[in-house]
Amino acid sequence: MPEFYASAAVVPPVPSATQRPHQSTSLLVHSSAGAVENSTFPQPRPKPGQKKTLREILGLKPRKKLNWWQRIPWQLKASIPIIGVAIVFAVLHITVLAIIFGVLGAFLLIRGLKRTFKVRRPWF
Description:
mainly alpha; 52% helix
């Protein structure tokens, strides 16, 4: 079975009949040089411009940067002491309250983790 390979050779455009001979040769030289240049060194893509936020468009001042504690959702922060209270009730053998606080703490923990791992897409 014959094997076929794609060749990297670029076919230069055929000069029209109205062009003069010296123009066609210069066209061939420039097109082949450009093809070699483009194939060995791809041109870098233009960098996208800095997009303005909606706040900047509306003329509002930018949001204040949050530190690491402020970036943690309140559900995650609130779940820690509530789960601690549930553990204390479990140690003291107060089962009903331990279950209530445990379920509430687990609910807040799951909601806080969902918000923490939510992916922010730049196009939204």
